[in-house]
Amino acid sequence: MRIQPVLNGNSTVLEIEPQELLLDVLRDRMRLTGAKRSCDVQVCGTCTVLVDGMPVSACTYLAAETDGREVTTIEGLRETDEYERIAAAFTRHAAVQCGFCTPAMVLTVHAAQQAGDITDEHLVRRELAGNLCRCTGYRAILDAVVELGQGRPEA
């Protein structure tokens, strides 16, 4: 079947099989490897991408569902000023260790920020609940995101 998603701001035409997962199409066909395969059951969040601005688990999301929709991967977000703000906050707070979960975490933070849902730690915890990090212990990530929600870098 033919689908026409807008991928990272670019109109795209893809021939896919109806059962193909978005994660496989992105990684294998489009060579967009920021979304990672890990749990394959929508638990860990490492495969997160944005569809129409909302985080989705690409490991369980059919590529066919993106027809006519906006799909943003970390590679697309990386071209924005907003990415730079988030990356700078993560860096300031040492909120990155191995980096495996970071692309999905950044996309989730971006979506939550667009929705105004990162104004305090309680909201940040709720928004990031679907993103697991095996390295940081979350404190640094929470601090970075709360800083972003408050609109000011800490010294």
Commentary on this structure:
By secondary structure, the protein is of the alpha+beta class. The chain has six helices and seven strands. It has helices at 22-29, 74-77, 81-92, 102-115, 121-127, 139-150, and strands at residues 2-3, 6-7, 10-11, 14-15, 48-51, 54-57, 70-72. The strands form two sheets. It has a five-stranded mixed beta sheet with strand order 3-2-7-5-6. It has a two-stranded antiparallel ribbon with strand order 1-4. A hairpin with a 2-residue loop joins strand 2 (6-7) and strand 3. Helix 3 packs across helix 6 (139-150).
In percent, how much strand structure appears in the residues? 5-15%
What overall form do the CA principal axes indicate? globular
What is the ordering of alpha helices and beta strands? Answer: EEEEHEEEHHHHH
Mean pLDDT: 92
Low-confidence stretches: none
Helix fraction bin? 25-40%
In spatial order, strands of the major sheet run 3-2-7-5-6
What's the total count of β strands? 7
Distance between the termini: 52 Å
Radius of gyration (CA) equals: 15 Å
**Structure class:** alpha+beta
How many DSSP H or I helices? 6
Major beta-sheet overview: 5 strands, mixed
Features:
single chain, 155 residues, alpha+beta, 5-stranded mixed beta sheet, two-stranded antiparallel ribbon, 12% strand
SSE inventory with pairings:
Layout: E1 2-3, E2 6-7, E3 10-11, E4 14-15, H1 22-29, E5 48-51, E6 54-57, E7 70-72, H2 74-77, H3 81-92, H4 102-115, H5 121-127, H6 139-150
Give a quick rundown of the structure:
This protein is of the alpha+beta class. 37% of the residues lie in helices and 12% in strands.
